[in-house]
Design a protein that fits this description.
Rossmann fold; binds zinc ion; alpha/beta; 8-stranded mixed sheet; about 475 residues; EC 3.5.4.25; Dihydrofolate Reductase, subunit A; 2 domains; binds guanosine-5'-triphosphate; RibA
Length: about 475
């Protein structure tokens, strides 16, 4: 529909005037220009990369014009930051619309009146009383033209990027189905916190959640309520690990595209990038215990704690049948987190050890089998386990068939020769290869593939086999 008018829900009419494109720092948008019956011009920025059919409803932002916030960068309100965050959210989703609604300046009272209201707020009034003492409505905005623009775009169902329930009600009254209100991730500032507090207490705006979604997940619960797009992504990625309950065995490895976790000298620094490190720390925060082989501790002197995000450190479990980790290594000297040192009958351990280290001596080789170790940990109340490295340890747990999920992150690097990641006796035919339902997460330059072995059971059981090597080569931490 072009250069046509439409009437909907009564008086207001809009006309589509022009179509062009707008390159921005959030990529290129299609731009449509509209004029309403009172001669006010509005624009819609449209992103439509994703398939419309079965996906979630498109993200839509009705952005009320605010010269001071949008163009001048004022911190009296949060409009400028919301405008930016909305375009970013739409760009990240690949699909959505931002309608920049003109005539909404000052919640519909116009620029000069808004500035007068500011002057009254400088003298101590809040944003509501300032409008009323000017003899003006608290909020005079009309959303009919926005609903009509959405209809013109063929959009009847949306996810609304807003904290304002009045916008949702106004759109619903115009027949637009609002599937959810999605929060924009804009933090309060000292300069606008009073204004935002008034919007929440006197104008029914959504309050920000008490905790960020991650803190709730790290606490072992699923967050509820309106989430920011970034928080929604966290819940989708890590929610299933919470839902798994008290028994969960996951593993992770970061490797080069050709499957190495370190160079041939054992250099494992920064195979994968910063976002994969953050992901690894999130996994640590979601388990009771993190398991590593002695070689990884020996090579990397890893800390195995949660540092990149908030969360509780898991118990560190070192599989070390021959007692070969150095006695000065971090897991034995850093008293901030408990360490469980699993050694064999013959292994020698120091007379005195820091009180955070518990040595457990296994009497038989079978005790070091993955299933036996997991059974032992579960009895200690450590039912949620992350097997973190290195390649041999993760491979042993994998081929023992005890992993519920494996997170394998590949970095765009070709190492050529080095310390291998996953290795186990393969089969002659590809049909015998291990597979499972997967999900993929882009982590900056890297791609993380999550194998959901739990979902594949019992269709493709992995045969438990005796490990032919207990020692660990190297890992990446
Ligand atoms: N009258 C008046 N208008 C203001 C004031 N501060 C910001 N505005 C205007 O308020 C409009 C933005 O509305 P907000 O209440 O900040 O937010 P909202 O659009 O209702 O809700 P969100 O969708 O969550 O952003 C813009 O047009 C601003 O010009 C103020 O103190 N007084
Ligand atoms: Zn503003």
């Amino acid at each position: 529909m072009s250069l046509e008018s439409q009437t909907l829900g009564g008086a207001t009419q809009i006309t589509r005037m022009v179509s062009t494109r707008l390159p921005t720092r959030h990529g290129e948008f299609k731009l449509l220009g509209y004029r309403d019956v009172s001669g006010v011009d509005h624009v819609a920025l449209i992103r439509e990369e994703g398939a419309a059919a079965n996906g979630p409803a498109p993200l839509v932002r009705l952005h009320s014009e605010c010269l001071t916030g949008d163009a001048l960068g004022s911190y009296r309100c949060d409009c400028g930051e919301q405008l930016d965050a909305a375009l970013q959210a739409i760009a990240a989703a690949g699909r959505g619309v931002l309608i920049y609604v003109r005539g909404h300046e000052g919640r519909g009272i116009g620029l000069m009146n808004k500035l007068r209201a500011y002057a009254l707020q400088d003298a101590g009034k809040d944003t509501v009383d300032a409008n009323t003492s000017l003899g003006l409505p608290v909020d005079a905005r009309d959303y009919r033209q926005s609903a009509q623009i959405l209809r013109d775009l063929g959009i009847g169902r949306i996810r609304l990027l807003s904290s304002n329930p009045a916008k949702q009600e106004a759109l619903e009254a115009q027949g637009i189905e609002v599937e959810a209100r999605v929060r924009l991730d804009v933090r309060d500032r000292p300069e606008n916190s009073g204004y935002l507090a008034t919007k929440r207490s006197r104008m029914s705006h959504d309050a920000p959640p008490e905790h960020h979604a991650w803190d709730t997940l790290a606490d072992g619960r699923l967050p509820g309520g309106a989430l920011t797009p970034a928080d929604e992504a966290l819940v989708q990625r890590y929610g299933p690990l919470i839902e798994a309950g008290p028994q969960l065995v996951i593993a992770q490895l970061g490797q080069s595209m050709d499957g190495f976790i370190a160079s041939r000298t054992g250099d494992a620094c920064f195979v994968t990038g910063e976002l994969d490190r953050e992901h690894l720390h999130r996994l640590r925060a979601l388990v009771d215990a993190v398991v590593v082989g002695a070689g990884t501790v020996h090579n990397d002197d890893c800390q195995l704690t949660v540092r990149a995000v908030t969360g509780t450190n898991p118990v560190r479990v070192v599989i070390d049948p021959h007692g070969r980790i150095p006695h000065t290594t971090t897991v034995l000297t850093d008293a901030g987190t408990p360490t469980l040192w699993l050694v064999g009958a013959e292994a020698s351990t120091p007379q005195t050890l820091s009180s955070h280290v518990a040595v457990h001596r296994f009497t038989s080789e079978q005790d070091f089998e993955p299933a036996a170790i997991l059974g032992f940990l579960a009895k200690l109340g450590l039912g949620r386990v992350l097997v973190e490295g290195g390649g041999l340890t993760v491979s042993r747990f994998l081929r023992a068939g005890v992993l519920d999920r494996l997170f394998l992150t590949s970095a765009p690097l070709l190492v050529g020769d080095g310390v291998p990641g996953i290795r186990f006796e393969g089969t002659d035919a590809l049909s015998g290869a291990l597979s499972a339902p997967v999900r993929r997460f882009v982590l900056g330059e890297d791609v993380c593939t999550e194998f959901n072995f739990a979902a594949a059971r019992p269709a493709s059981p992995v045969t438990a086999q005796r490990p032919d090597q207990q020692d660990e080569a190297a890992g990446q931490h």
